[in-house]
UniProtKB/TrEMBL annotation:
Protein name per Swiss-Prot or TrEMBL: YegS/Rv2252/BmrU family lipid kinase
Gene source species: Neolewinella aquimaris
Record bears the keyword tRNA-binding: no
Any matching Pfam family: YegS_C
Span of domain DAGKc: 1-135
Record-linked Gene3D superfamilies: 2.60.200.40, Probable inorganic polyphosphate/atp-NAD kinase, domain 1
GO molecular function, one term: kinase activity
Keywords annotated in UniProt: ATP-binding, Kinase, Nucleotide-binding, Transferase
Keyword ATP-binding: yes
Database matches in SMART domains: DAGKc
Length: 301
């Protein structure tokens, strides 16, 4: 049975720059690891199909090459196919934001990444489940899910050609003054909050949007979701405190609550994104699943 790392490459990551990077990285990886195998997704073979094929071939160590959306697709495939207990997963960050890897302290620089990989440190990473929409669709997430304004920014940015880690923060600032916060009902554990929500974030990882920290209280190994929400908050207050999104202090802003929850439901007219991918609309239920994934990382330091 193969035990060498098997790389699954998303050539569309980082606005298409990933394929060029991979051509330069492959000889370096082969020199360090010796024998490796890899597969590159295309129009005929999706990341999910390549993941299934890799597991069927007996690979137990998968390396996802791409950004948060790449890891989202691969991990969804592993969960849907009930393969999380058989796999050790190593993210190689090559996207625009690489926010999941910020929490995990996985470096983007290839030489430093290889050092982290060869140390072999792993954690049993939690996985979130989202049930949403009128048809009760299901998606899994590994980092952060966002509703209200966060989902709207992701929806608007999805078709833009320019991909950069600053795209999300720039669009966040550009769209905020004209955004009408939806009237929602948020329920978690024994709490019910109704009002106009600018944002609701559910976190396993701490970062999203190119380095912002909406859920600084998140822990990828914890048995509980991190929850941050802003309700009935004037837009001028949000703008004045926007710097807090790049620090762990967002919970110190009046109108913002940072807490934890075992199960969260949101009803009302809202979009939903997870790991930087727009998924659809509410209602939404979020929870952790029993399955965990062994992830190679540098967390905690």
């Amino acid at each position: 049975m193969p035990t060498d790392p098997h790389f699954i490459v998303n050539p569309a990551a980082a606005g298409g720059r990933a394929l060029r990077w991979w051509k330069y990285a492959l000889p370096v990886l082969q020199k360090r690891f010796g024998r490796i195998s890899f597969a590159v997704s295309n129009e005929r073979q999706s990341l999910a199909e390549l993941t299934a094929a890799a597991v069927t071939a007996g690979h137990e160590r998968l390396v996802g090459v791409g950004g948060d959306g790449t890891h989202h697709d691969i991990i969804n495939a592993l969960v849907h196919q009930n393969h999380t207990d058989r796999i050790t997963y190593a993210p190689l960050p090559l996207g625009s934001g690489n926010d999941w890897c910020r929490t995990l302290r996985v470096p983007r620089h290839l030489i430093r990444w290889m050092q982290v990989y060869q140390k072999g440190k792993t954690i049993n990473h939690r996985i979130g489940k989202l049930t949403f929409g009128a048809g009760a669709q299901v998606q899994y997430f590994i980092n952060v899910a966002g509703l209200a304004y966060d989902a709207e920014v992701v929806r608007r940015s999805a078709n833009l050609d320019w991909k950069h880690r600053l795209l999300y923060p720039l669009l966040t600032a550009a769209y905020l003054p004209g955004f009408q916060p939806p009237k929602l009902a948020l329920k978690y554990d024994s709490h019910t909050i109704e009002g106009r929500f600018h944002t609701i974030n559910l976190g396993i990882g701490r970062y999203n949007g190119g380095g912002m920290q909406p859920v600084p209280q998140a822990d990828p190994t914890a048995d509980i979701l991190a929850l941050t929400y802003a309700v009935n908050t004037p837009v001028n207050r949000i703008i004045r405190n926007s710097w807090r999104l790049f620090t762990p202090t967002i919970g110190e802003m009046e109108g913002v609550t940072t807490t934890h929850a075992r199960e969260v439901t949101v009803t009302g007219p809202t979009g939903l994104e997870a790991d930087g991918e727009f998924l659809g609309t509410g209602p939404v239920r979020a929870e952790l699943i029993e399955q965990r994934l062994r992830v190679v990382c540098g967390w905690p330091a």
